[in-house]
# Entry
Amino acid sequence: MPVNAVRPFGRALRENGKTVDYVVALWVPKNKKSVWGKAWEENGQLKALFFHDNVVKTNEHPDIKARGYFIVTYNGTVEDNGFRISWELAKQVDGGTVVYSGENRYVAAVYSDPHTNSEYLGNSLWDQRSIEFVHSGRDTADVVDNGNDNTFERYVYLLTKQRCNCQC
# Structure
C-alpha cells in the first residue's frame, strides 16, 4: 500500500468492532463515469471493492480486472501543493472544495454510523445527498440519504481539497 495513499481521516476506520486500514480507490468503467471505492491489504494481498450498476464488484470482478483501478494518493507536501486533503461534514462543505470523480459528480465519502460506532467508506452523489457503501463481506450495498432527520448532512463526511495559507 503506498505510504501516501489517501485514508479517511488519516487513519484506519472502525467497522463492526474492528479497525480496517481502508484507502480511497477510484475505478473508471468503460462508460468513463468513475466510481469511488475502497482498497485494503488482507493476508498480503491488495483487495478493492466498488458498487456499480447495483452490483458489488471486487478487484476479482472481470470489469475491474479488465480496466484496473487506482489507489488515490496525495503527493508532495501541503507547502508545495498549496492545498490539503480533508474530510468535511456534509452540512459544512463548500461545493467548490469537493473532489468530484468527473461528469457524474460522485464524491468519496464516509458514513459515520452513530448507532454502531462504525465508519463506512463509499461513493456519494453529493448533489442528491446520498451515499452508497458496502459492509465488508456483504454482496449488497446500503444507502444513506437525508430522510426525515438529515442523516446525510449530520453523519457523512466528504473528500475535499482545502486551500492553504501559511498556517495550514
